[in-house]
Amino acid sequence: MTGRAHPNTPRPRAPRASSLPWWALALPVLAFVALLTLPALGTPAPSEVSSGRVLSELVARVQQTFGG
Fold first, then answer.
1. Using alpha carbons only, what angle is made at residue 21 by residues 16 and 22, rounded to the nearest 5 degrees?
2. If 44 and its partner were Cys, which of 5, 7, 39, 48 is the partner (CB 3.0–4.6 Å)?
3. Where are the alpha helices (DSSP H) in 1-68?
4. What does pTM read for this prediction?
5. Torsion of the alpha carbons at 42, 43, 44 and 46, rounded to the nearest 10
6. What is the DSSP letter of 46?
7. At what angle do helices 22-41 and 53-66 cross, to 10 degrees?
8. pLDDT tens readout for residues 11-29
9. Which of these, 26, 61, 24, lies nearest to 41 by C-alpha position?
């Protein structure tokens, strides 16, 4: 034996999308939509962005929309 794994040894698989929470799947979409809509709404002040206020408001709106 050369110490190599048997060819039929199952390999570790990446987690399936169904095992992730719904918000983990929605985050990239929400980020993209936020980037498109922020310039139209007016760019928020840097202090608001750094404090996470804009993100927390976005999360609150999404939770209200999806009943989270």
1. 105
2. 48
3. 22-41, 46-51, 53-66
4. 0.30
5. -160
6. H
7. 120
8. 776 656 566 777 777 888 8
9. 61
Nearest C-alpha neighbor of 65 from the set 22, 19, 4: 22
Model confidence at 62, pLDDT cuts 50, 70, 90, reads confident
Amino acid, res. 57 = E
- Which tokens hold the place of 11? 């390999």
List phi, psi (to 5°) of 25. Answer: -80, -30
- Asked if residue 58 lies in contact with residue 34, where contact means CB atoms within 8 angstroms, the answer is yes
Tokens of 26: 């929605």
